[in-house]
Amino acid sequence: MASASFVKLNASSSPWIGQRSFSQRSGSPAVTRVSVIRAGSYSEELVKTAKTIASPGRGILAIDESNATCGKRLASIGLDNTEANRQAYRQLLLTTPGLGQYISGSILFEETLFQSTTDGKKMVDCLREQNIVPGIKVDKGLVPLPGSNNESWCQGLDGLASRSAEYYKQGARFAKWRTVVSIPCGPSALAVKEAAWGLARYAAISQDNGLVPIVEPEILLDGDHSIDTTLEVAERVWSEVFYYLAENNVLFEGILLKPSMVTPGADHKEKADAETVAKYTLTMLKRRVPPAVPGIMFLSGGQSEMEATLNLHAMNQSPNPWHVSFSYARALQNSVLQAWQGRPENVEAAQKALLTRAKANSLAQLGKYSAEGESDDAKKGMFVKGYTY
Q: In sequence order, which residues have a C-beta less than 8 Å from that of residue 116 and are 6 or more positions away?
């Protein structure tokens, strides 16, 4: 008869985080197989960083759009896509007084990580002064996946270790890798496996270089499928992701997740209210995500600013095993761009708009948000079919 035992060991007194052994006896000497997770040199720091980001009432500001995508944002307010304009916009965001009250981490594009403000201060120092952890987008974008049903895979593993080491030296303490899964495309078993394996390899490399990996397999909103279909696909994807994370000896206490909320497809005839989205999303998480994971930092995925906040609020109406929070890009930035319009005299108003949205999501993380007084702009959806970063 098989027996299993689990041994917990203190990371400070042993090079092993955990150990599991299985012994089977069948009239012969016992055969023992041991599976372990070795504690790397950064393990304690990784756990501390993850807990700092997953702190009550705070979430992540994602401003890691590629230069091309940032250019589209700037074009929406009539600005050219120049380094000076990108610097001005990101400086506006990262120097917002009081931002650290609501924001615990900010994901940067490589240009911003190595950039300084117009008065010579490093962007990463602007964040650290407010106890905001600097992060870095490390993937190299989506490319067609041969042999699939017109699906994509995420590139960027080549040279990731050396790049991650440089990012750490520059002050980054967490990383982001976004891959996607398309429901209208199947998704195929090949695409799901490729997404899960790529995320697991990235996560292991990141931890080995001192960066907390954000694990993000985005289930795209594209399609007319029901919320039940989204739940089914999300459970399948996350099951595969955690299988390969374990296979790669990733320390679960030193990662963060960036899942999509479980919603119907953008073209589905029936929309789901916040309570339904919360019910389905939490069902998926409780079935698939170990409680060892410190934080679930949701992406907004093209929802309106108010919709993303309402859904987050609904998920925090009862206790969760993890810190359930936000890692929003468009759902934090849209109002800011509209207030700024690229004019120096509007910087203060734009920063006020950022604080308004950040505070709203902070309250949602605490389960205390009210939509009363929200503007019409905050209610406008931002879904873009086939959206890329």
A: 122, 123
Q: Enumerate residues 6+ apart whose C-beta is below 8 A from 370.
A: 363
Chain segment 314-323, per-residue pLDDT in tens: 999 999 999 9
**259: phi then psi, degrees, rounded to nearest 5:** -85, 165
Could you read off the pLDDT of 46-76 as tens digits, one per residue?
999 999 999 999 999 999 999 999 999 999 9
Helices (H), 289-381: 305-315, 330-340, 347-365
Hey, which bits of the chain come out as E strands? Answer: 3-8, 16-24, 31-38, 59-63, 103-108, 133-137, 142-144, 152-154, 174-181, 212-219, 256-257, 295-298, 323-328
Predicted model pTM: 0.87
Biggest distance spanned by C-alpha atoms of the chain: 83
- Tell whether the torsion through CA atoms of 288, 140, 154 and 159 is positive or negative: negative
More confident residue, 30 or 144: 144
The answer to whether 123 and 94 have CB atoms below 8 angstroms apart is yes
Q: What are phi and psi of 270, to 5 degrees?
A: -115, 120
Q: Kindly tell me the burial class for residue 229, based on how many C-beta atoms sit within 10 Å of its own C-beta (0-12, 13-18, 19 or more).
A: middle
Q: What gap in Å lies between CA 12 and CA 17, rounded to an integer?
A: 9
Contacts of 89 (CB under 8 A, 6+ apart): 70, 73, 74, 337, 340
Is 210:163 a contact under the CB 8 Å cutoff? no
Structural tokens at position 116:
């300084």
- Are the beta carbons of 61 and 328 closer than 8 angstroms? yes
Alpha helices in 54-175 (DSSP H): 67-75, 83-94, 110-113, 123-128, 160-170
Q: 139-190, pLDDT tens digit by residue? A: 999 999 999 999 999 999 999 999 999 999 999 999 999 999 999 998 999 9
For the annotated catalytic residues, the residue numbers are 216, 258
Q: Are strands 3-8 and 16-24 parallel, antiparallel or unpaired?
A: antiparallel
CA dist., res. 158 & res. 4, Å (int): 38
Q: Could you tell me the two tokens for 365?
A: 């993380």
Nearest partner of 284 among 246, 251, 237, 331, judged by Cα: 237
CA–CA dist 95, 59 (Å, integer): 17
Sign, CA dihedral 206-210-212-214, equals negative
